[in-house]
Each structure stands twice: as C-alpha cells, then as structure tokens.
From TrEMBL:
It is an enzyme of class 5 (isomerase). Its EC number is 5.4.99.25. It comes from Acetobacter tropicalis. The lineage of its organism: Bacteria, Pseudomonadati, Pseudomonadota, Alphaproteobacteria, Acetobacterales. The active site is at 46 (nucleophile). Keywords: Isomerase, Lyase, tRNA processing. Belongs to the pseudouridine synthase TruB family. Type 1 subfamily. The gene is truB. This is tRNA pseudouridine synthase B. It comes from the Bacteria.
C-alpha cells in the first residue's frame, strides 16, 4: 500500500481569500505550504469574491458538512444598468438599461427575495446538467436552462447607496444561495439590469473575519520549511454552533464503539433541540463526535 504523501495534520485554517483565485487554487496552495496529506474547503467562493474560505485539514474534513450548513454572511456591490452572462464582472455584457431605481425602490424589492424563496442559479455555476457542469456548457456557448431551486435568505439589507449606478447589500443566508442570482434578481425586480462587481464573505458558521488569515501570512520565512500546524484551529471549533451534550466516561466508550445510548439515561443533560437535529457529544472538554436524537436514542452520526 502506497503511503500518502504529506504530513498527517488536523484542524481548520480560515483563509481570507484574495480576489482572482479559485477556491481549489487556495486549497492547493495551502496543501503545499503545510505539506499536508489531506485538505478540503468549507464552501466555494467565486474567483471574483474575497473573504472567509475555511480550509479543513485531515480529520477536520469530517466536519465540513456542519460548517457548510451554518449561517453565512456576505456583502456585495451591485452595478445597476448592465447585465453579464455570469451575473458578475468577470462575464460578458448581455444587456443595458437606463432605469436607475431609488433607494426606496431597491428596499421595496427585498422582502420578496427574503425567507424561503425559489432561486434560478447563475448559468456559470458548478451545478450538473446531464452529467456536465453548467459553467462548462455556458463557456461552450450552450448555456443550460436551470430550474429554480429552494433557497433560504434570512436577511437582505441595502447598507449603502454609493451612487445612482452602485449599491451595497448585506445578506445572511443558509447554504446553496447564490449572491450573483440575488444581485441579478433585485435589479430585475426594480425593472432594470444588474450584476455583482464585488463580493466578500464575512462569516461561515462559527468562523468570522477575526479568525481569518491571509495566504501571505502563512508562508514560512525559510524557503525549505513548511507552515506551522500551530496556525490551525482545533477540529472541534467547526462544531461550536451545535448544542453540546455531556457524557460520562462509560457512555463515551459505548458511543465510540458505535452504540446508541438511551435518552432515559441522559435525562437532565439533553440540550434543547428538535428531534433529528445534530448534537455535539462531549466527554469533559473533548469532542467525541456528532450524534442525533432519534426514537428515544442518542445515535452516533460522525465520530471524530
């Protein structure tokens, strides 16, 4: 069996992604800098976008779904009066409009784009259509007809009107919401056209801008050295938003062997949560894994 190349290091690195790089390029760069065996990311950012790109090293990759399910906060700048095929400044111009909505008209369009909505994704997206990526089809001059998809937008605010052509918005949302589509749709709702010219992610789950580090701060001074694993945050930090449940040593041992625990024995310790929602199983300060409360049992879902 071939040994996997790189160091077996575990934890989270919260990168402040620069514009112009893809998320995959950031992962590759971090993997080389740390000489890490395994690295993934917690939610793609477009090349144009900046901001939080959480990178999962080693066993932290097991917690990626819980980060991606967490709340995200974005700030984007909308350019009014012009549409692009990619719905952002990297695309080709597809239309013009002389209509410039007022601030009140922009705000009036936001409630219809807030809450549980149906959203048509941008054609330049990674969604698959008959086995092909939508962005590959669009680049080949075969833009697909993408059906609307459910999306959840918890907050959508106009935060600044720079000038008649430019407005800045802040959005709080769940996973799978396309900011480029929101920008396109708020312009259309006001009888004009628009696209994103700047996009920044400010929060992903438990991670905020205060946690972020730029790629140039990661690189070691010695050309032959690798970045220090001390820069990584513990694997368990990704689960900070999930309610905790304290277990005894015996209960922890059973759980680690894949056994479900009776909720009757855990009465008085069970956090306030809906049935089927994840809980974070703890033994002292140690995170054991993610479980669910189902059918009167605490069932292990992902052991760390």
């Amino acid at each position: 069996m071939r040994r996997r190349r790189g160091r077996p290091i575990n934890g989270w690195l919260i990168v402040d992604k620069p514009t112009g790089m893809t998320s995959t390029q950031v992962v590759g760069r971090a993997k080389r800098l740390f000489d890490a065996q395994k690295v993934g990311h917690g939610g793609t950012l477009d090349p144009l976008a900046t901001g939080l790109l959480p990178l999962a090293f080693g066993t932290a990759t097991k917690t990626v779904p819980y980060v991606m399910d967490g709340t995200k906060i974005y700030r984007f700048t909308l350019k009014l009066g012009e549409s692009r095929d990619s719905d952002d400044a990297d695309g080709n111009v597809t239309g013009h409009s002389d209509v410039r909505p007022t601030d009140d008209e922009l705000r009036a369009a936001l409630p219809a784009l807030t809450g549980d909505i149906m959203q048509v994704p941008p054609v330049f997206s990674a969604l698959k259509v008959a086995g092909e990526r939508a962005y590959d089809m669009a680049r080949d001059g075969r833009p697909p007809e993408l059906p609307p998809r459910p999306a959840r937008v918890d907050r959508f605010e106009l935060v600044e009107r720079v000038d008649q052509d430019t407005a800045i918005f802040e959005v709080e949302s769940g996973k799978g919401v396309y900011m480029r589509a929101l920008a396109r749709d708020v312009a259309l709702a006001c009888g004009t056209l628009g696209h994103i010219i700047a996009l920044r992610r400010l929060r992903v789950g438990p991670f905020t801008e205060a946690d972020a580090i730029t790629l140039d701060k990661i690189a070691p001074n010695d050309d032959n050295a690798h970045a220090s694993p001390e820069l990584l945050r513990p694997v368990a930090t990704a689960l900070a938003d999930i309610p905790a449940l304290a277990l005894t040593a015996d209960e922890a041992a059973s759980l680690l062997h894949g056994q479900a625990l009776s909720l009757v024995d855990l009465m008085g310790r069970i956090p306030q949560t809906e049935e089927g929602e994840p809980v974070r199983a703890m033994e002292g300060g140690r995170v054991l894994g993610i479980c669910r409360l189902e059918d009167g049992l605490l069932r292990p879902v992902r052991i760390l």
